[in-house]
Write a structure and sequence with these properties.
By secondary structure, the chain is mainly alpha-helical. Helix content is 81%, strand content 0%. It has 5 helices and no strands. Helix 1 (3-29) packs across helix 3 and helix 4 (92-112) packs antiparallel against helix 5. The longest helix has 30 residues, at 35-64. The structure holds fe (ii) ion (FE2).
Amino acid sequence: MNNDLINALLGVWAAIRAEHQLFWTYHWRSKGAPYYGDHLLWQRLYEARVPEIDRMAEVIMAIGGPSAVDPMRSWVAVSDIINRSEKLGSTDATRGVALVADTLNRIDAANEMLAGAANTLAINNVLAGFADKHLEALYLLRQRAAQ
Ligand SMILES: [Fe+2]
């Protein structure tokens, strides 16, 4: 078992779960003139995280077994990210940009640990899919944050 790889994947999982919780919260607290567009943007972004959360957990289970997806340990990691999130920007859009950029860094870091690991191609494919969707989210949020 490759503990460094599993920990890196757990870090990706925590970041995506934190995005899901926070984007859903930003969806609820959208307000002002751009309220409805923001409300729908955040919904698009939090809904896109659900299949990623599920897929990442299945990959971690496949290579690390059930102990790797301990619910309390994983939720503490999510909580740490949520606790820091308010300081990441002055608006929900700028906080969203920072969260997505951090997740992309975690995805890249996990991907760099795949050399020599089992199932490299499959895990790389899963991470590449996440990176693709996160680059889309980064584009959407940067456009919104620039207003
Ligand atoms: Fe809603």
